Automatic annotation (TrEMBL), chains A, B:
It holds the Pfam family GST_C_3. The lineage of its organism: Eukaryota, Fungi, Fungi incertae sedis, Mucoromycota, Glomeromycotina. SUPFAM superfamilies: GST C-terminal domain-like, Thioredoxin-like. NCBIfam families: maiA. PANTHER family: MALEYLACETOACETATE ISOMERASE. Belongs to the GST superfamily. Zeta family. This is 11551_t:CDS:1. It comes from Dentiscutata erythropus.
Amino acid sequence: MSSEKPILYSYYRSSCSWRVRTCLNWKGIDYEYCPVNVMEGAQNKEEYSEINPYEFVPTLKINGIVLSQSVAILEYLEEIRPEKPLLPKDPYKRALVRSLVQAIAGDIQPLQNLRPINFIESIGGDKKEWINYCIGVEKQLSKSSGKYCVGDEVTLADVVLLPQVYNATRFNIDMTKFPLIQRIANDLSELDAFKKANPQNQIDCPAEEKK
Amino acid sequence: MSSEKPILYSYYRSSCSWRVRTCLNWKGIDYEYCPVNVMEGAQNKEEYSEINPYEFVPTLKINGIVLSQSVAILEYLEEIRPEKPLLPKDPYKRALVRSLVQAIAGDIQPLQNLRPINFIESIGGDKKEWINYCIGVEKQLSKSSGKYCVGDEVTLADVVLLPQVYNATRFNIDMTKFPLIQRIANDLSELDAFKKANPQNQIDCPAEEKK
């Protein structure tokens, strides 16, 4: 690990940023928080698009390199900091974790990007689809979960789950239909690494949104 | 590896199935092909949803376990069959590969699921977004690519790229604006593992779609 402090380009409410914040906290990696106001289009400005070609948050500068795409960042952090692991050792359990990560990050998360949610919500489309995906995740959890998503240890699946549950609630999805998701999310929200990563605890969270 | 032949539940035109077919071919893993006709809703039938809670293709039965979600399957195959690797050894390069995988599988792929494409295409919405994501991938490739997406070796990024380019063309996205994507896709389509995984070479491809 280089001596320079990592910099996380983040937006407080971005679920993808939240994932990386949680992972950094979990692994005890101290970092500088650089807010990118995606509501004002800061991610599309040249100075940002030069470090992140996708013009999304988050971006992580670490060890002299620049990383984009949250799941790729999580896997990188797991590889360079295997202490306090977020992937099990067993290949099958690792696959279960990654399967949940992809279901949440690849299927559910894209549904809640701002444009589609505004657009499709008017016909009730995206909520229905969101709920379908949650049914899949709940079914998977009924087979794999213990205290957390896969067994009794916190994994990357938990890291991506909590922000999505938070957003589901924000978009008025009735999560009481998904008791396993709900129970695990509640337990996760009590853990320090997750608490510290909560949007409300970020420097760019407006005062009126802090409870 | 158990002596039982792996079974891949697949749909010939599914880009997620195509990814896994390519990886199995690349690693020389012989498998049985079990067609799931997603146009007729076979993925929603109970016998299938019991093995795949998300009711998507692909599903892979291998070594006595059942795996869902294509990227998780690719990572699993990489772990159990590290010969003919599809991830570089260097953590930064691995992150570059996974960043492209997530950009393509997590951002671009969800745009082309059947419901959204039919629905949003009428207002030109999804094509615009698709093109925006392609711009990001092209910019990333300008930094990372050699002969293939990341350097000169075939990686998981290439495995996910080719099916998406095929679908982009199918949905009339003008890919000539993305010369790097196009050039790499052309080179990939000449490789045996990719050729064999092409929809046209699957047993469930209708005769009229075969050239």
